[in-house]
């Protein structure tokens, strides 16, 4: 597969109109496009996703089946979220609950988290745990954007080093899209909820 065949899809876990998470993901996708990939931003504001219920089939849960199919078609998935209460957002959690091994196993995943205060380390850790449970391959480079209110001015990064960090994530999304994944994690053996209800 050449870089021109790579498809990078970003899943934005923020519903805010002026979302810094969405702005950062768009910057990462632009870098991926610059590296030769085709890209898509899945903006959860445009999807009807009821709270996950394991007794309801995905096809009967609003736009869940459509969202899962778009994630499944990606070679690399970028997960982006604001940090809420030390973790990632509930819209992203709901979207991921409607996905499973079919969407993420052996798929390259990049992580991006944004916070209004200090580094969003725990949000990144929690997203990383989900990726391990789904046997995804996580890009070692991840993007953390602290103090997001001061990090942007007119939709542009104030700090060029921060912009480089996010752009690097986009380029790595293309570079590692076809990497041979590691053996399954021990967590995935117990992940009975990942069958894609």
UniProtKB/TrEMBL annotation:
Top-level taxon: Archaea
This protein is called what? Flavoprotein
Q: What is the lineage of its organism?
A: Archaea, Methanobacteriati, Methanobacteriota, Stenosarchaea group, Halobacteria
Question: In this record, what's one Pfam family?
Answer: FMN_red
Record-level Gene Ontology MF annotations: FMN binding; oxidoreductase activity
The record's section on PANTHER family has: CHROMATE REDUCTASE (PTHR30543), NAD(P)H-DEPENDENT FMN REDUCTASE LOT6 (PTHR30543:SF21)
Family per similarity comment: Belongs to the SsuE family. Isf subfamily.
Q: Which cofactor does the UniProt annotation name?
A: [4Fe-4S] cluster
Q: Which GO terms describe its cellular component?
A: cytosol
InterPro entries with a match to the protein in the record: Flavoprotein-like_sf (IPR029039), FMN_Rdtase-like_dom (IPR005025), NAD(P)H-dep_reductase (IPR050712)
| Stretches assigned to the NADPH-dependent FMN reductase-like domain | 7-148
């Amino acid at each position: 597969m050449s870089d021109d065949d790579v498809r990078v899809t970003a899943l934005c876990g923020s519903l805010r109109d002026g979302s810094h998470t969405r702005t950062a993901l768009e910057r990462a996708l632009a870098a991926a496009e610059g590296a030769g990939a085709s890209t898509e931003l899945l903006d959860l504001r445009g999807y009807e996703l009821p709270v996950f219920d394991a007794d309801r089939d995905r096809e009967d849960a609003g736009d869940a089946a459509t969202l899962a199919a778009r994630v499944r078609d990606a070679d690399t998935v970028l997960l982006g979220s604001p940090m809420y209460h030390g973790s990632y957002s509930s819209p992203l959690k709901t979207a991921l609950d409607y996905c499973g091994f079919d969407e993420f196993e052996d798929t390259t995943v990049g992580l991006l988290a944004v916070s209004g205060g200090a580094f969003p380390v725990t949000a990144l850790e929690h997203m990383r745990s989900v990726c391990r449970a789904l046997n995804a391959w996580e890009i070692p480079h991840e993007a953390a954007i602290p103090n997001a209110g001061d990090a942007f001015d007119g939709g542009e990064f104030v700090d060029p080093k921060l912009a480089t960090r996010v752009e690097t994530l986009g380029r790595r999304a293309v570079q590692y899209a076809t990497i041979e994944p590691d053996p399954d994690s021990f967590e995935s053996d117990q992940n009975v909820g990942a069958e894609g209800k």
